[in-house]
Amino acid sequence: MQLNAPLDMHLHLRDGEMLTRIAKYSAETFSGAIIMPNLVPPVTTKEEVIAYRQRIIQAIGGKTFIPYMTLFFHPSFNKTFLNALRHDITAIKLYPAGITTNSEEGVNGFDIEELRPVLEAMSELEIPLCVHGETNGFVMDREAEFVHIYEKLATAFPKLKIIMEHITTKESVEALDRFDNLYATITLHHLLITLDDVAGGMLQPHLFCKPIAKRPEDREALLNVALRAHPKVMFGSDSAPHPKHAKESCGCAAGIFTAPIALQLLTELFEQHDSLHTLQAFISDNARHIYNIKATPKKIILEKKPFQIPPDYEGVVPMFANKTITYSIKRVIHL
Amino acid sequence: MQLNAPLDMHLHLRDGEMLTRIAKYSAETFSGAIIMPNLVPPVTTKEEVIAYRQRIIQAIGGKTFIPYMTLFFHPSFNKTFLNALRHDITAIKLYPAGITTNSEEGVNGFDIEELRPVLEAMSELEIPLCVHGETNGFVMDREAEFVHIYEKLATAFPKLKIIMEHITTKESVEALDRFDNLYATITLHHLLITLDDVAGGMLQPHLFCKPIAKRPEDREALLNVALRAHPKVMFGSDSAPHPKHAKESCGCAAGIFTAPIALQLLTELFEQHDSLHTLQAFISDNARHIYNIKATPKKIILEKKPFQIPPDYEGVVPMFANKTITYSIKRVIHL
Fold this sequence. Notes:
The structure is a homodimer. The first copy, chain A, is α/β, with parallel strands linked by helices and about 325 residues long. Chain A has helices spanning about 15-30, 45-60, 80-85, 110-125, 140-155, 170-175, 190, 195-200, 215-225, 245, 260-270, 275-290, and strands at about 1-5, 5-10, 30-35, 65-70, 90-95, 130, 160-165, 180-185, 235, 300-310, 325-335. The first copy, chain A, has a single domain (about 1-335), classed as Metal-dependent hydrolases (TIM Barrel), CATH 3.20.20.140. In chain A, the strands form two sheets. An eight-stranded parallel beta sheet of chain A has the order 2-3-4-5-6-7-8-9. Chain A has a three-stranded antiparallel beta sheet with strand order 1-10-11, covered by helices on one side. The longest helix of chain A has 16 residues, at about 275-290. The mean pLDDT of chain A is about 95. The interface of A and B includes residues 140 and 194 of A.
């Protein structure tokens, strides 16, 4: 199995020591990734974008990997400001305030008129809007409740590309086809697990994430569009490293670390569903069309050979730690 | 506030060192409790019931507290066997196989004809059947899916008192009034929390239990019958101690420890809902009528005085550790 220029369209690389520890795992097997801006403080200026990009490039140590940078959305942005950093960013990420890790500086309420100046400027400058789409409602309903906000945004700004990030519900899947300008990323873990895996047996902190894994019928809906590589969906791992002690404690942080194992597990999953022929589109081609970005000359060769997932990667426990899966990375070819 | 002979109609005291550590907390403020039989191995013989009862009495060290013993249901029981230990037990607890902590020896399938001999013997001997009512379906649906089994049992054995243990859903609440012989216990935690509290923010292992806390409308339905002390519902804490390390780890065990704080929190809750006048029925009178047991001469006086819940009770972390609540135990009176 060969994957050409795989892209991770939703990735948390964090900063400082954690960045140094984990960036290489994405850079090893992906050709690029959309880098989330929810640092503390969030990435909100041209200078911060450029400096963070530099730190990432330093952390990956010469590997062929493009960090596609994003800015943390704020309604106070204006066109002059955005125009000045148009070429430093690939998208802008909008978080409802307080909805997930480091999102306290996000948007309160979704008043279209308040958002209009910056969203119109983004439309004109062709900057996609990536959205963490959850309300502050009941945990199993938050994403479905947000769909009407997606619809409001999609209607009010028809030329704005809106990416529904890490969708987890059938309601979001259904919204995809109702609006030309709605797209979505889907994680690996939401294709593999439901709430049952998180809390149906013992409680599994390493499978705890936001949005939380949902119901079996939601997972089915996600699989349905991912496995046929619906042209409006892309892979985005939402891989989010936390130190082991922060996951295995009272008050466990949200986030699942999948960067080093994503391609192997996706290949296994797509093979199980006789869908290996669509994996290239899901893992790269769709994203390149949606974001209008070029393929990096990098090929990943996978082979059907058992691979035991390590217990941790430098202190960060991956999803399915210690489990043996059927595909391994054989070789990475830089063309 | 004064409570006469409070009863905990669903309690896990465990065994060995844990029993020694925690039995006194129930014995301090309750006058008795239905003791769950899911030890390893489960309590299935007269000798085991008597021996376990003795160990409990030793552990509570002379406090006024009656352990109402139960047997772990097995379809192979017969009338002669049950008749011989009729006076050693108060109820028999049925677990579907593998559904919760130490339930591997439970019932597979619910074939009425297979269960008929023992359930008819229990009807004749007037031994109530306590049931952990969950299927092995999706975690949020397990209890609602089990309601039709409750209905099947209630219809087939109309003289058998069937206690739906630790109910968590509006579906179970609704079933209460459809069958004369269905009763229910309700825990403290299911009156206070929903899945949001467990997994809506950070993941909270000390709020993880089986059945898992459900949706806001389920909690409302439980509150509705508990606060008016519906005559067919009783308090049953399902208090279940686990050592701190077993809760704060990868693969956290299910169970919430509430025994030492249950009366204080129930009083706070009932007061918040202007329902202090029904607490006596919920905490004791209903249970005595349903089980036909006498009140032990023990009164608990509570006072409105801030009480900070300790971080742990001998290594077992209680619900709401470190939180300050409004009611304290003032005095226990042995009449």
